[in-house]
Predict the structure.
Amino acid sequence: MASTAQAQGVDPPDAQLLALLERVEARTRSLTPGSPDASGSGSGEHQELDDPAATGESTGDVTLGSLSPLGTPTSPEDLSGHRRQRSRSVFESDYEPASHATLTTVTSVNIGDLARRLKRARRLGPQSEIDLDMFLAAQPVAREAQQYAVSLECRDMLKTMTLEQEYKMPETLKRTAQDYGWAYMLSPTIQSYCAVDASDKVLAVMRELGVANIPPAHETARCDAVLACIGKALTDCRHHIKNKVSETLKTGAQGPKDIASLCAAIANRSKVKPTAAMYMRVAAVRYIVRTYPECVGEDAFWIRFNKQLNQYRELLKTPVKIQAAFEDMYESDKRLYGDPDILTHPTLNPNHQDEWISALERAAARPASKTASGTTNTRRRVKRK
C-alpha cells in the first residue's frame, strides 16, 4: 500500500492512518454475510446488531459516520443490507406530525365556542348571527374583505344621516359672518345701506378669502342660513350706528361728541379700526339725522340717507365734487361738536388695514343692486315648507 502511494506521487500514510484503515477493513469483513469473522453461528440468519459502529456511536477515537465525506448523510441501510428503522428526532416526533392535527381540532372547537359566546353576549338578529358564523368560518383574507365592506357601509350610512340632519352653523363660522357683516356696514365706501344683495357680496368675499366651513354653493339651504346670519349682522350694525349718532343729539347728552369719540363708540363692537374716511362717512350720517329730524324711524332714516347719497352722485357726478360734499359735512360737524380727539382715538392708516377688511371695502364700493322700495331689511328670509 505504501509502494502504491509512492508510485502515484502521494505522501505515504502515517502509522495512525494505516491503523485506522486496518480497523475499517476488519470491521467490514466482520459485517459481511458468510464471513468467517461474522457474528452468529453461521446459520445464515443475520440478527440486528447493537454495534456502536453501526449506529454511528463512538468506538474509541472514530465512528463509522465520521468516515463519510463532510455533509454526506449516513445511509439508512446498514452495511448488512437490512434497513434499520430511523428514529425521529425530538423535534419531529413531538411537534411536526402531531401539531397539525391538534391545531386543527382545537381551532375548530374554539371557533364554535367563540360564536356561541358572542351570540349570548350580544343582541344579534337572525341575519346577524348568520353573518357572524360566515365570518368566523371564512379565511383570513375573506374576513379582512368583509370588515372593509362593513366599514364602507357604515361610512355611507353616517354620511347620509349627517346630510339629513338639520343644518347647524358652526359657532366659528357664525362669529366670522358677524364680523364680516359689521365690517361691510362700517365701510366708508359703501354705496347703499339698504341693498338687498349686501349679504351676497359679503358671502362672496368670505368664499374668495377661503373662510372655513362655508357650505358649497349648490347646498342652497345651508347657504341661506349663512346669508341670514350675515343679514342680521348688517341690520344690527346699521341699528347700532343710528343709535350712537342719535345719542349725541339728545338734549343734555353727556360725554364727548367729537367725531373721533363717536366713531370709536360705533366701532368698538367690531374688528374695524376707525380711519379718516370713516370720520367723514359718520359725519354725513349725523348731518342727515340733524337735517331731517322727521325721519325718526329706523327704516325711514336709512331710506332717506340712501336717497341723499344717490342725489349727490347724480347731481355732482364727478368723484372730486362728491368728495367735496363729504368734506363740507365733515367740517360742519367739527364746528358743531369739536375737532376729533385723535390723541385719545388715533386713526388707522388705510395702508395698514387688514386685507379682509380692504376686500370688504372693495366689494361695498361696487354699485349696489336696486334697493327694495320702502324697506331696509338686508336679511335673507326664506320660507320653506
In short: Residues 38-84, 88-106, 372-377, 379-385 have pLDDT under 50 and may be disordered. The two ends are 119 Å apart (CA to CA).
